[in-house]
Automatic annotation (TrEMBL):
It comes from Cyanobacterium aponinum (strain PCC 10605). PANTHER family: ALLANTOINASE (PTHR43668). Belongs to the metallo-dependent hydrolases superfamily. DHOase family. Class I DHOase subfamily. Catalyzes the reversible cyclization of carbamoyl aspartate to dihydroorotate. NCBIfam families: PRK07575.1 (NF005751), PRK09060.1 (NF006559), pyrC_multi (TIGR00857). One of its GO terms (biological process) is purine nucleobase catabolic process. Its EC number is 3.5.2.5. Keywords: Hydrolase, Metal-binding. GO terms for cellular component: cytoplasm. It is an enzyme of class 3 (hydrolase). This is Dihydroorotase, multifunctional complex type.
Length: 437
């Protein structure tokens, strides 16, 4: 049951970055009042003194592995990790087993999420070469996902002939994993036999990413179709988008593409292996600049857990992907504390803009009438990322040992407390997200 909440004396980050040292009253799952010296007879009081109140994070790209791959993660463990990381809503990708390519598979995920998820959820429909009708009609879906590269099986839709009809028909947002599969295949042959995982960044090189991004932009512009380019990894793509992005194109970056680079392979080996791969330190810098300049619109984690046993296989048998929902917000808030960006910008990139890009109503800002998806974070308490504190089933983080600040103390989902003074409330359940057309 949702009870009313009164959050007292927090530093509140309001829309447009306005700050208020004050109170927020939550009634029936919504933000009812924002002000100073608010009173309520019946609400539970949460002491926000010394804490900062932000809108809950909306993570627009995660892989939560259920159904079919639950040995890596499931919707319960993943959503516990979300609550700990301040993520109150997520948009999940279709490469599960079965693939999310039909209404039935989408319904199955929604039912599972309703049973198990502590936070709010939305799911992508996965494009294949022949499911155009499902892509246009399945509901509620946050969008269409096209793997232009770095996939195998039915979800790999890599040629212009296969991709173009998806852009040509319908108006739903298309999110692309932009890597040029033909180039990757060629380069795999060239570098065959090398087991140093650092070779991954050379096989799936910057040009492979740029080729696919250019093709997606060309098709989006031809049909004026809403396009979102997932996990931008290279400076050359960012510079290309600086001059070629149109109002119907958006893009995102992951914390790992901002904060890790090819030097990570030496320290953490295959744990640094992901798609698109980590790049050079210079790329980190150009991506940061593009984010600060507004060329990049938002941040996503691409949370893609694999077990340590799977990751221990020698490259190229080791799978690509790393977890992220528990560390994304604290990584970015730590950067804000260092002065690289502001807390208000972090809110824009992780809360406000994902809601706008995917047209999720009443979320992403602290406003009267909006859903009470709220987090209270402590910006003054540095703590290391420790694997024993993680909720993700895979049990590791590429950021292990990093001293970070801004850890959520409370995570509130539709007015329900999912993280209560640092303790998970595992009986809380989120809701299915809705998407405006
Ligand atoms: O590294 C990755 N792993 N990138 C993706 O886009 C997919 C993901 C996965 O599902 O493991």
């Amino acid at each position: 049951m949702t009870s009313d909440l009164l959050i007292k004396q927090a530093e509140i980050v309001l829309p447009e970055g306005e700050l208020l040292l004050g109170d927020v009253l939550v009634q029936q799952g919504k933000i009812a009042e924002i002000g100073t010296a608010l009173h309520s007879e019946s609400a539970r009081i949460i002491d926000g003194k010394g804490l900062t109140l932000l809108p809950g994070v909306i993570d627009p790209q995660v892989h939560f592995r259920e159904p079919g791959l639950e040995h890596k993660e499931d919707l319960f463990t993943a959503s516990c990790a979300c609550a700990k990381g301040g993520v109150t809503s997520f948009l999940e990708m279709p490469n599960t087993k079965p693939l999310t390519t039909t209404q039935a598979a989408l319904d199955d995920k929604l039912n599972r999420a309703k049973e198990k998820c502590l936070v709010n959820y939305g799911f992508f429909m996965g494009a294949t070469a022949d499911n155009l009708d499902d892509l246009r009609e399945a509901s509620p879906a946050c969008g269409i996902k096209i793997f232009m590269g770095s996939q195998h099986g039915a979800l790999l839709v890599s040629t212009e002939e296969e991709i173009e009809p998806i852009f040509a028909k319908g108006d739903r947002i298309i999110a692309v994993h932009a890597e040029d599969q033909a180039r990757i295949m060629e380069r795999r042959k060239e570098f065959a036999g090398i087991s140093d995982p650092a070779i991954h960044s050379q096989i799936q090189d910057e040009e492979a990413a740029l080729n696919a991004t250019k093709l997606a932009v060309k098709l989006a512009n031809k049909y004026q179709r809403r396009l979102h380019i997932l996990h931008l990894s290279t400076g050359i793509e960012a510079e290309y988008l600086r001059t070629h992005k149109t109002p119907w194109i958006s893009t995102e970056v992951t914390p790992q593409h901002l904060l890790l680079n090819t030097e990570a392979y030496e320290k953490i080996g295959t744990l640094a292996q992901m798609n698109p791969p980590l790049r050079s330190p210079q790329n980190n810098e150009i991506l940061w600049k593009a984010l600060l300049d507004g060329v990049i619109d938002c941040i996503a984690t691409d949370h893609a857990p694999h077990t340590l046993e799977e990751k221990a296989k020698p490259y190229p048998h080791s799978p690509s992907g790393m977890p992220g929902v528990e560390t994304s917000l604290v990584l970015m808030l730590t950067e804000a504390k260092k002065g690289r960006c502001s807390v208000e910008q972090v809110v824009k990139w992780m809360c406000t803009n994902p809601a706008k890009l995917y047209k999720i109503p009443n979320k992403g800002e602290i406003k009267i009438g909006y859903d009470a998806d709220l987090i209270l974070v402590d910006l003054n308490n540095y703590r290391p990322v420790l694997k024993e504190n993680l909720s993700t089933k895979c049990g590791w983080s590429p950021f292990e040992g990093w001293e970070l600040t801004g850890w959520p103390v409370y995570t509130i989902v539709n007015g329900n407390i999912a993280l209560d003074n640092g303790q998970l409330c595992t009986d809380v359940r989120g809701k299915a997200l809705t998407f405006e057309s």
